[in-house]
Amino acid sequence: MVEAAFTIRGATVRQMISARAMRMGIALLVLVPRIKSETSTYSDAPVSFSSRIYHFGNGGPLEDSIRENAKLNDDVKILMTITGVDYNLASLISSFIGNVERFSSDDHLASFFGIVPTSRDSANVKRRGKMTKDGSSIARWALSIMVDTVMHHNEPIKEYYASVKNRTGSGKLAHVSTMRKLTRMLYHMLKTKQHWRWENPRLTERKMARLQMDGGDGS
User: Fold this and answer.
1) Which domain holds residue 100?
2) Which of 161, 163, 180, 219 has the fewest CB atoms within 10 Å around its CB?
3) Residue 136 pLDDT class (50, 70, 90 cuts)
4) From the centroid of its chain, how far is CA 188?
5) Does 6 map to a domain?
6) What's the whole-number average pLDDT of the chain?
7) pTM (two decimals)
């Protein structure tokens, strides 16, 4: 996707679209199982779904439910210490990871996201190919959104991406490598209950305060 050349209130159009798509992703994850259990016929589902999607992001029961879960979820709060990550994105990533203890290592978590390279071995030759893309494509997309967000706010991560891109000549490969790096960091944050290495404590405090407020965006 080509980066937009203009901004609206300091945010690129690409970032605004990504934020909107991320909210839609949360709505899909939460609404589909709920609507399937609540509607008696398939003909009822589209009306119920479109109605709730319209209200999502404008307040209402669904967004309130996500906010209330974030207030009670320690993992979501840990992920919110990452600059630029609000409770929506933190909740989405956390919902895929679940209990981090089920992953034996950060490599295991990376494999869950499908961002480890395929390996084809023959005799004494090992070849590393494209990433496996195992697991949920939505989870991988959410992680990609988080990487874009982090790079926008964090110079060391942005420099890491640039160094890989310069070395390989591939922006796509650099992005996947950065996803892999962020996955390692997320794993250790959740495993050890530590905050983001480059956390801005005052910003985190403001996020948490807004999260506790009715209608606060927690961003």
Assistant:
1) 11-212
2) 163
3) confident
4) 16
5) no
6) 75
7) 0.70
Retrieve residue 2's tokens: 């080509």
In a domain? residue 2: no
Detail the DSSP E strand segments found in 125-173.
Answer: 125-131
Round to whole Å and give the CA distance between 208 and 16.
22
pLDDT digits (tens, 9 = 90+) for 65-81: 788 889 999 999 999 99
Q: Per-residue pLDDT for 137 more than 80?
A: yes
Q: Does residue 3 belong to any structural domain of this protein?
A: no
3-state class (DSSP) for residue 50: helix
CA distance 116 to 133: 8
What integer pLDDT is reported at residue 88 of this predicted model? 86
Query: Which residue, 96, 103, 80, 110, is CA-closest to 30?
Result: 96
Q: How many CA atoms lie within 13 A of 48 on its CB side?
A: 17
- Residue 146 to residues 35, 131, 169, 215, Cα–Cα distance (Å): 28, 18, 23, 23
The number of folded domains in the chain is 1
Residue 83's pLDDT is 95
Are 116 and 107 contacting, i.e. CB atoms less than 8 angstroms apart?
A: yes
Joined tokens for residue 182? 């962020």
Strand, helix or coil for residue 11: strand
> Is residue 217 a part of any domain in this protein?
no
- The Cα 178–Cα 56 span in angstroms is 31
